[in-house]
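Budget justification, computational time. The allocation requested in the original proposal was used primarily to generate C-alpha cells for proteins on the priority list. As evidence of use, we reproduce two of the resulting records. The first is shown immediately below.
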Amino acid sequence: MAKVLVERRSEAFESRYAREESAARLARAIAGFTSKGMVFETSWREEPGATWLDVSFAPSRSTRLFLNSASAVLTLLIAATIWSLVAPGEVPVNRFLVALATLLAIFAFPIVVVAYGSRREAEESTLRKKIRRAIVEEEEERR
C-alpha cells in the first residue's frame, strides 16, 4: 500500500466525441472535484480517427511531507528507546514508557499508510469514473 502513495501512474481514455466537445464535457464532469491525496494532470492527443485524454496521477506534496516527517519521528523514537535502555540511572518506568510509545507508533504507522493509500485510490477511482462518464460511455449505456 505504501507503494500506492508514492508512485506515479498514467491512464489513457479514448473519447467518443470531438476534441472540443470532449473538453467541454470533461470540464463539466470534473468541476468541483478536489483531491487531497493526489495531483492529476490531463493532456489531449489526436490520432487518426480518435481523440485521447491522457491523465497522470502523482502523489500530493503533503503525502511526501507526511511520509518523510513520519520516518524522522520513528527514527527519533527508536533512538530515544535505545538511549533510555542503555543510559545508566534511568528509571525503569521511563524505560518502559518510552519503549511502549515507540512500539505503538511502529504498529500504528502501517494503519495510517493504508488509510492514506486508500484515500488516494478512492480519489483516483472517482476521477476515472467521472472521466469515463463524460467522454467514454454513451448516454444510453449509463441508463
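The second record produced under the same allocation is shown here.
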Amino acid sequence: MSYAGTNKGGTEAIVAAERLVLERRAQLDSGLTAESVVNSFPLAIDRIMGEGGLWDESTAAAAFLQANGDITEAVHLIRAHRSTLPRLAFSDPLNPRELQLLRRVVSTQRQPDGPILLGETVDYTARILHDGAEPPLPVVDSVEAGDLSDEQLAERAGLEIAHPADEPFRRFRDYLYDMGVLADRALPADEEPFDIQMVAPQLPATRSAWLSMMAQADTGALINIWYQGVLGPSGYPSESVTLGEVRHGRLPVRVAHPHTGELVEIGRIRVSETEAVSHLGENRGEDPTTYDIGYAMALGHNERKAIAAACMDIVAWRFRGTETGKQIEQVLLHTTDGLAASGFLEHLKLPHFVTFQSGLDATMATRAEAEALLRRLAEGGEEPADADAAAEASAAAAAHAGHGHDGHDGHEH
C-alpha cells in the first residue's frame, strides 16, 4: 500500500492540528494535576496501566492528560515510554495467597471461608444521573434483625468481631480439590513464562502466553469475544460458569537483593483476580463428574477483564491441541490488543489517494474498453473470436491507464 505523508498544505495543516492539541492540553494542565487525576479517575488510570503493561499511577495520569482523556492514546504513550525503560531486575513470582483484600465476592457459596468484602463498587448503586453528593435514592438506614448476618448482630450487641486474616483461608477450588472433583491441569514440566513484552505472540501458544496477553488486552475486546462465544455461533465458552473468587487487593512485589541475594519487598501493586468454575461435560470426552477452574489476574481494579479472561482461560485450555483451540489462541493473541487494533483502524485516516486513484483508473479503463466493444457490436462490427484476447486487451488498457498515473490526486492529471 502506498502512503503519502502530506497532501496540499499538509505540513501547515499538521502543525495547526498539533497546535490545537497543545492548546487543549494547556487548558487541562491549568486545572488538573497528575495527582488529582489519580484521585478523580482511578478506574481509568488502572485500565491505562493494565493495557500499557506498566505499573505507575503518576505516569499513567500524565499520559491521560497528554492524551486529552483518550485511554487508547494514553496506552500508546505508556507503551512507548515503557520501551525506553531498562529492566533492572526480575521479581520473585507473586503469590495470590498473599493478597491484602480490598474486595472479595464469592458466588459459589453462601457462607464461604474467609471474608466477603463488597469494598468500593457501583454494583448495587442505582444508575440514575444526579447532581451533588447526595445519593439519587434514599438510603435505608434501618433493617430488620432477621436480615442481618451473625457478624452484624454481634456488632449491634457490642461484641468484638475477630475478622479473619486476608489469607490463608479456603477457596472454593480447595473444596473441589479435597473432594477429588477438580480437573487435573498438572503439566509434566513447569513452563517458562512467555514474555509478551519482549517476544511477539506465537502460535501454538502456551497458557502463560494467553494469560499474559489477556492481562494486557483491551477490556471491551475481551468481553466481546467471551460474550460472542456464549451467545454467538462459535459456541466456544460455556455459560455454565460460576465465579469462585472475584478479588481486588494489594500484592507484595519482591526482588532478590543484589548483594545478599535475599528477597526484599520493594512495594505493593493492586490487582484484580478471578477464579471461574465450570462443570465439564461428557460431550467432549470429558469426565462429567469433574469441574475445571479458569484463572486470570489483571493490573489495578478491573473485574470485567479478570472475569472475561478467567472464562476464556477455561475455553482455551479445554480446546488446546485442536483446530478450534488454535483458532481461539489466534483470536486471543492477535485480535485483543487494543493498541494494535486501533493502530490498524486509524491508519485508514492517512492519505491513500495514490493507491486508490490507481485502482480507480484501472476500473475506468476496463469500463471504457467494455463500452467500446459494445459500440462496435452495435455498429455491426464483429465480436473478437477469442474471448481471452478481448480480456487481455482490456487488461492492457487498464495497465496503460495505471502507468499514466502521476501519483497525485485525480483532479490533477
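A brief technical remark on that second record: Residues 34 and 40 are 10 Å apart (CA to CA).
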